[in-house]
Amino acid sequence: MVHDLEEVRPPGVKACKAAKCKKHGNEAAFDQLQSMLIVKENISKLKLFDHLLAQKDTLSDIEVSLKNKLVSEML
User: Fold this and answer.
1) Distance between terminal CA atoms of the chain?
2) How open is the CA angle 30-33-37, to the nearest 5 degrees?
3) 73 vs 26, 42, 60, 66, 67, CA distance in Å?
4) I need a labelling partner for 19 at 20 to 30 A (CA). Which of 7, 43, 48, 67 fits?
5) Is the pTM of this model over 0.90?
C-alpha cells in the first residue's frame, strides 16, 4: 500500500521558528541565575540607601552624590 511508503515531510516554517525561540536547559538556567543576580543587586542598593538615610551625621559629598544617584535610579 501507499501508506507504508509515506515520505517524511521536513518541518514547516512555523515549526522552525518555534524551535529557535525554545530555550534549552542551559539557557533557562542562565536566565534564572541572571534574574536572581539582578534581584540581589537591587537588594544591596536598597541596603546601601537605607544606611545612607540612617546616618545622623552630615554626609560627605561622595555620599550625597551616591544617595542622589540611588534615588534617581529608584524613580
Assistant:
1) 71
2) 135
3) 31, 10, 20, 11, 10
4) 7
5) no
Q: How many Å apart are CA 63 and CA 57, to the nearest integer?
A: 11
Counting beta carbons within 10 angstroms of the beta carbon of residue 67, is it exposed (0 to 12), middle (13 to 18) or buried (19 or more)?
A: middle
Closest C-alpha to 63, from 75, 44, 49: 49
The cell for 45 is: 542598593
According to DSSP, residue 3 is labeled G
- At 47-71, the pLDDT tens digits run 998 988 888 788 888 988 998 898 8
